[in-house]
Design brief:
This protein is an alpha+beta fold and about 120 residues long. It has 4 helices and 4 strands. Helix 2 runs antiparallel to helix 3. The radius of gyration is 12 Å and the shape is globular.
Length: about 120
């Protein structure tokens, strides 16, 4: 079992290579990265889904990101900006049905019911 996540955020854009060993972020990039980059509001929805929310993988791994760390990896997925562009960009913890289903296919589920059934 491994734990992923963190507390900080970088002043500037973190490259995705900083997340090469973070299986949660890699799963987000795989299943939602294009939407985060192109669909208005999806980055904020992702921040809401991960900020101070614990996630568990079917294999026992877990992930937890602070407000700053959540914003940092979203900026890395976008390839621009910084954690402050996403910091408090939505309500937390609130996991949209779209994010919940996409991450479930990757084996990840939130551990608390901070869920939302809307889009």
């Amino acid at each position: 079992m491994a734990s992923f996540g963190g507390l900080g955020g970088n002043w500037g854009t973190s490259p995705m290579s900083d997340y090469a060993d973070d299986l949660f972020v890699l799963a987000v990039e795989r299943c939602l990265g294009e939407q985060i980059r192109t669909v208005p509001g999806m980055g904020a929805d992702m921040w809401s889904a991960v900020a101070n929310q614990d996630w568990k993988h079917a294999n026992g791994d877990d992930a937890s990101y602070s407000f700053r760390a959540a914003g940092d990896f979203i900026a890395a997925i976008c390839g621009k900006g910084m954690y402050m562009d996403w910091y408090c960009s939505g309500p937390y913890p609130q996991v949209s049905a779209v994010i919940r289903e996409a991450m479930k296919k990757e084996g990840w589920e939130p551990t608390a019911d901070g869920g939302s059934e809307h889009g």
